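[recover] target loaded
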């Protein structure tokens, strides 16, 4: 029997790939249409959503579809370069040699017998008008794009969101594009980042409230749905890697991947790359044991900091605190992003009916407050009301891969401290 020809795993699942992996891209018709319409409109665009949610692939895919020319100014570079203007200068400098802004001519001249033993140094500097960073960048981008639509992307905007000075600099660039001297370049700005309140920020920023009127926000780039994750799993494992699996196992696998990665595309690529390697090492045979092995490996490889934080809290006194471990397990099951004590209590009563007695709401509230006030916070208190939310989405992923429930006595098993077995469930 001829062996099955499969692509490389890292060609199918590509968590850190800068370019769009068209083969594994999951269509988002509504978002793509909203972005396309905004790009064809007269306002500059805000694209927001949590880290790893697929913002970059979304805008790159849409820009490719429109045959637009784009250049990315990474706001994270401001930390090393200094200002947003410096980032724009750097963009130009990557494509063309740095302009020579001054020439120095030095020559020795004899000036007669009176100073025959000496000389003078004559220095002349010729400094042409220095073109501003914004104008130079816009001019360069328009030449690069020719007649095609031209987009300047400010990515990772969250890197400068806390700096009024840097945000004002971006705001000034937005304003400049209304000036006829700059509007002639016909460049549109796309602001990409985690914050969802960029327009609100400019509405309330001193001396910059009119900037909000120049911006449009498209709907949030949110997590993938269960159906989209199912399509991703089928495409990657069945169509691309040609792995044989029964429908019931594929459904279990899709549900599990959706659960542990929370439907965040970048995490899905990470996890599936890990799982595919486990399947490969088992001669492409699938099993639930392999999935548990992948959970363990993915957690320790990609969620190390989150794992260490949670593990230290649960084992603060040496042995595992069973009550706190149960609370963590329940946090992984709470269906809301912002949750209250009674939401956790509901899950606790349902999941541990045999082992939990009348745990008081006061004690549960104390444990949640303990997690919210720890040196390394797992959850944070909501600024309004008495709710909580995860300090980082990766914590909930780690919890879901880390804690399992024994089916017999409802005790908690911490996967990384236990050999992989099948008598417990996530």
């Amino acid at each position: 029997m001829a062996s099955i020809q499969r692509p490389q795993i890292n060609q199918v699942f590509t968590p850190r790939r800068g370019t769009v992996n068209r083969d594994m891209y999951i269509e988002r018709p509504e978002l793509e249409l909203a972005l396309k319409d905004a790009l064809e409109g007269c306002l500059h665009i805000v694209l927001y959503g949590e880290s790893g949610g697929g913002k970059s692939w979304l805008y790159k895919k849409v820009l490719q579809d429109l045959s637009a020319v784009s250049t990315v100014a990474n706001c994270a570079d401001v930390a090393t370069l200094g200002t947003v203007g410096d980032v724009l200068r750097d963009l130009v400098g990557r494509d063309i040699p740095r302009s020579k802004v001054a020439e120095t001519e030095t020559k020795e001249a004899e000036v007669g017998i009176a100073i025959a033993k000496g000389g003078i140094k004559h220095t002349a500097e010729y400094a042409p008008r220095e073109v501003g960073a914004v104008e130079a960048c816009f001019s360069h981008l328009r030449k690069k794009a020719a007649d095609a639509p031209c987009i300047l992307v400010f990515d990772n905007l969250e890197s400068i969101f806390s700096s009024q000075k840097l945000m004002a600099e971006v705001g000034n660039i937005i304003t400049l594009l209304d000036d006829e001297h700059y509007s002639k370049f016909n460049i549109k700005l796309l602001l990409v980042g985690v914050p969802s309140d960029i327009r609100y920020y400019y509405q309330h920023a001193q001396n910059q409230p009119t900037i909000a009127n120049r911006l449009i926000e498209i709907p949030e780039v949110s997590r993938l749905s269960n159906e989209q994750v199912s399509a991703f799993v089928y495409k990657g494992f069945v169509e691309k890697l040609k792995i044989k699996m029964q429908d019931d196992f594929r459904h279990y696998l899709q549900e599990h991947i959706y659960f542990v990665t929370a439907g965040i595309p970048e995490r899905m690529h990470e996890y599936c790359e890990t799982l595919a390697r486990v399947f490969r090492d088992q001669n492409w045979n699938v099993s639930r044991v392999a999935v548990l092995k992948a959970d363990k490996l993915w957690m320790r490889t990609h969620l190390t900091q989150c794992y260490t934080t949670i593990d230290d809290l649960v084992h603060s006194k040496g042995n595992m605190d069973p009550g706190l471990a149960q609370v963590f397990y329940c946090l992984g099951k709470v269906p809301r992003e912002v949750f209250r004590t009674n939401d956790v209590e509901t899950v606790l009563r349902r999941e541990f009916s045999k082992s939990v007695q009348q745990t008081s709401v006061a004690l549960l509230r104390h444990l949640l407050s303990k997690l919210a006030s720890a040196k390394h916070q797992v959850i944070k208190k909501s600024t309004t009301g008495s709710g909580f939310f995860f300090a980082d989405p990766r914590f909930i992923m780690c919890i879901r891969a880390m804690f399992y429930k024994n089916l017999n006595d409802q005790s908690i098993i911490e996967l990384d401290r236990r050999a992989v077995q099948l008598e417990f469930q996530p």
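[recover] notes: The chain is about 45% helix and 15% strand.
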